[in-house]
Amino acid sequence: MTVLLIAIGAALGAPLRYLTDRAVQARHDSPFPWGTLTVNVIGSLVLGAATAAPASPAVAALVGTGFCGALTTWSTLSYETLRLSREGARFHALANMSVSLVAGLGAAALGYTLTSTVTG
Amino acid sequence: MTQPDEFRVDPDVDLHVPADRGELAAHPAAVLGAIAAGGVLGALARAGAQAAFPHPPTGFPWATFGINVSGCLLIGALMAVLTARPAGPLVRPFLGVGVLGGYTTFSTYVVEAHRAVLAGAPGTALAYLAATVLGALLAVWTGDAVAGRLLARAGGGEAR
Question: Higher confidence at residue A13 or residue B159?
Answer without folding.
Answer: A13
